[in-house]
Amino acid sequence: MRSARLILASALFALMAGAALAQPAPRAVGPTIADVGSAYYRFEQVSVTSADGARVYRVQIGVPRKAPGSGGYPVAYLLDGDAAMARIDETLLGQLNAGDPPVIVAVGYQGDRQFDVLARAYDYTPPAQDGAYVVDAAGRPGGGADAFLTLLHDQIAPEVTARVYVDATRSLLWGHSYGGLCVLHAALTRPDAYGRFVSVSPSLWWNYGSVLAEVDPFLSRPHPAALSLTLLVGEEEVAGRGGRTRTNPMWSSVPSGATRDLAQRLHAAGVDVRFAEIPGQGHGGMLSASLIPTLLSFAGVAPAPGDVLS
């Protein structure tokens, strides 16, 4: 029976991959600040392969030219790293340099696109609690977040620390959309892995809101005193304006205000949570609208995004 399920899963994956490739191509990767150079940062690149050999990660490491403090640099891990790097420019790096600039670790995928839609759908989504094979509303296989987060912590982070003097106690994990779901899953299941978790427009609907089932087990255990979670969404996406027509029931499996409700529930339980609906922003625009203030705040040159709940 297990062999039959694996064969079926492989066949479905192949069919869905073909369908995904038939969709409009995501934005191409173009020259970024890592390619043209910066007066404030130098960039290195390494490749890391997933445990199953199916995905190769392009890891771009931005190292401040400014000397670190006595404890080392803070370090920011960015999911959808190719898309993130496309939104980082010399102006932003100069602003970071004015404070305590973090090492930037942008984790993307080998290839010529800012988003590898199949790879991220697998890597950024939690496994089903019953071990079932799960696909998203577009038919893309998921459930690989635990393996990805282990690779990030056990392989990519040591690669960074071997190259750069970082302060592991000042670490941040940022992600948007499926990346935001992955960050939230990480905060709920391995809250001691990073100091700050920034989950932007998390796809709570994935697998009919299964990530929300992780909240009770999280709250039943002591959480690190230094844990900080930021949840950000766009005002337009909450209102349902400007988005795609959503017909699959998975899309509507959680209410539009579910992220706010989650923030309030965690805050009531004593978790350090910040939350905001960013005016005028839809789902896609939240990538840039969150990334830049997150990095500026991490460097200590701007207020932290989101509001402290009361």
Automatic annotation (TrEMBL):
<dbReference type="InterPro" id="IPR000801">
    <property type="entry name" value="Esterase-like"/>
</dbReference>
<keyword id="KW-0378">Hydrolase</keyword>
<keyword id="KW-0732">Signal</keyword>
<comment type="similarity">
    <text>Belongs to the esterase D family.</text>
</comment>
<feature type="signal peptide">
    <location>
        <begin position="1"/>
        <end position="22"/>
    </location>
</feature>
<dbReference type="Pfam" id="PF00756">
    <property type="entry name" value="Esterase"/>
</dbReference>
<protein>
    <submittedName>
        <fullName>Prolyl oligopeptidase family serine peptidase</fullName>
    </submittedName>
</protein>
<dbReference type="InterPro" id="IPR052558">
    <property type="entry name" value="Siderophore_Hydrolase_D"/>
</dbReference>
